[in-house]
Fold this protein.
Amino acid sequence: MKARPHSHSHQRQELSSLTGRLRRQARKITGPRAAILEILRQHPHPLTNKDIFAALSGSRCNLATIYRAMHLLEKMGMVKRFDFGDGAARFELVAEGDDGHHHHLVCTSCAEVVEIEECFPNEIETRIAAANGFQSVTHKLEFFGICPECQTTRHQ
Ligand SMILES: [Zn+2]
Ligand SMILES: [Zn+2]
Ligand SMILES: [Zn+2]
């Protein structure tokens, strides 16, 4: 199986370009939304609403504001939702002109997250679509394991 690299790159985006995108989509950039985007920009891995809430400590944002903002930003295609199977939605900034499709490798011991740029070859989705009469088949997938650091501490 040959891996297909993602076009996705994890370049940090400038906040001004983010707020520019918000403005182009004719939405009011409220303080909380700009603050949330700035938090996400500073973190290369997906964050839960509670992570964002903790990072925004001292601001007037409450969890309900963050939930609503994330819902809106997801609808606008500015953030992508990921599921690590623990019941908490996680959000990551989507680069402009990118669909944000990628995967993660999560340590089940310490929760360390590695961004994975590889993906399945397109043929698999094409085959699954054809075999079942589906169109526009896509996938969501996260990997789990024990990170090098946890392997070391475990064997001491
Ligand atoms: Zn670990
Ligand atoms: Zn990611
Ligand atoms: Zn993929």
Notes: The first strand starts at residue 4 and ends at 5. The chain has six helices and eight strands. The mean pLDDT is 85. The pocket of zinc ion (ligand 1) is lined by residues 107, 109-110, 112, 147, 149-150 (CB under 6 Å).
